[in-house]
Structure formats: structure tokens, C-alpha cells
Amino acid sequence: MEELEPSELGTQEYWNTRYSKEIEDFSNHGDPGEIWFGEDIVDRVIRWMNKSDLIKKDSKLVDVGCGNGMLLVELANDGYTDLTGIDYSDKAVELSKKIAEKQNLNIKFFNYNVLESIPDSYQIFHDKGTYDAISLSENSKENRLKYIENISGSLSDGGILIITSCNWTQSELNEQFHEKFNLLSIIPTPQFKFGGKVGNVVTSCVYQKK
Q1: Among 59, 113, 156, 198, which one has the highest count of C-beta atoms within 10 angstroms of its own C-beta?
Q2: What is the mean pLDDT of the chain?
Q3: Radius of gyration of the chain from its Cα atoms, rounded to whole angstroms
Q4: In the predicted model, is pLDDT for residue 196 greater than 80?
Q5: What does this protein do, in the record's words (predicted)?
Q6: Is the pLDDT assigned to residue 103 strictly greater than 90?
Q7: Is the model's pLDDT at 194 over the cut of 70?
Q8: Is the Cβ–Cβ distance between 157 and 122 less than 8 Å?
Q9: 111 SS3 class
Q10: In CATH, which superfamily holds the domain spanning 8-209?
Q11: Where are the domains of the chain?
């Protein structure tokens, strides 16, 4: 499988700069910033979670690469109680804390790099775009394998990984994660039709730790 070409989206400097600007916008205008992949994808993930017998409102969940934390805000408002966000950008963590505090929500946020360590165990990992960014970094294959190893190591037995990607197809994700995870479900995402073929703008897969 060919690796993706490195991009600025795979650098910590890019995200620190981006979230510094979003902190300024939030402080001045109350704008929390962009919801990565859009609100529709967040709604689809939460609907799937609410229907799943494996996920409870008090399940221990971590959002990897939480950004502005808006997925966790939506989950908290939907009644989920044990929520954590981690991001390697300290500016993202600063922004997400400000947004959650403004709404008086009890969400934990930490400045951690998933490629280095995850100092806790969780029942559910959620990732919307972080694996994509890692795939666009220098030494992407090494970093992808480290990501998969660390996520698997920090998931409880039978734990769930919900991952949304715009860079990898379902079959590519299955190939990359199959050693540590079984495919559990596919979350339907918006489709497009071109030249008689139907495809997806993004892919959302749910995996269970082997």
C-alpha cells in the first residue's frame, strides 16, 4: 500500500497556528471554529453510538485529536458522562477547555501525543481526522503503526474504535487495522456519484479490539 505524500496538515506547527487563531476568534466573537468533516458526520456518529448495545452513557470515552472539542460537547449535552479529549496541540487543548467551561460541561482535556503515550485506558476511542493527519506526516508508515499499537494498548478488552477518514477507504482501513481489530460496523456517510460509480466523501468505520 502506498503512503500518502507528506503535507503541512501532518505537522504540529500547522495545528498550533490554526488553533491560536481559533482561540482569538472564540475570545472575540464566541466562534468555536470549524467542525472537522462537518456537523452531519458528528450527528451520524452520535446516532450510531446511541443505538449501540456496546456503548453506554457512562462508558469511558476519549476523543483522539479532539481539536476544539465540539464532538465531546455534543456528547456531553447528549448525556454522556465520562469524556476525555487529548490533542498534541496545546492550543487545541486551550481552546477546547474554554469552550467546555463556557457551557459548564465536565469534560477532561489533556495535551498528549497519541504517538508517544496514552496514560490511561478507555472503553471507546473516537478519531475524526487524526489518523488522517498522521498519515500525512513524515515517516507516516512508522507513525501509523505506532498509532494503531498505542490505541490497541490503551483500549480495554473488547473496546471500540470509531474512526472517520477522508484519506483512506473502508478496505484500506480494514487492511491497516486488521491485526489488532475486527470490523464491527460501518457508519453510513454522504455519497457522491461520478462516471456511473458511487463513492463516499468520508469513511466511518467502527472496530472492536481483538
Answers
A1: 59
A2: 93
A3: 16
A4: no
A5: S-adenosyl-L-methionine-dependent protein-lysine N-methyltransferase that methylates elongation factor 1-alpha.
A6: yes
A7: no
A8: no
A9: coil
A10: Vaccinia Virus protein VP39 (3.40.50.150)
A11: 8-209
Cα–Cα distance, 130 to 133 (Å, whole number): 5
Which pTM value belongs to this model? 0.92
Instruction: Give how far Cα 150 sits from Cα of 80, 162, 188, Å.
Output: 24, 15, 27
**Residue 197 or residue 84, greater confidence:** 84
Q: Using the predicted structure, report yes or no on whether residue 197 has a pLDDT greater than 70.
A: no
Is the separation of the CB atoms in 160 and 54 below 8 Å? yes
CA atoms of 91 and 103, how far apart (whole Å): 19
pLDDT the model gives residue 31: 83
Short-list 106, 112, 92, 97, CA closest to 36: 92
Tell me the average pLDDT across 165-191: 93
Rounded Cα gap, residues 187 and 165, in angstroms: 12
Listed in sequence order, the residues at least 6 apart from 189 whose beta carbon sits closer than 8 Å to its beta carbon are 41, 44, 164, 200, 201, 202, 203, 204
Helix H or strand E encompassing 27? helix 12-29
- Please report which helix (H) or strand (E) contains residue 165, including its range: strand 155-165
> Do residues 196 and 205 touch, judged by C-beta distance below 8 A?
no
Among 39, 50, 106, 97, which Cα is nearest to 78's?
50
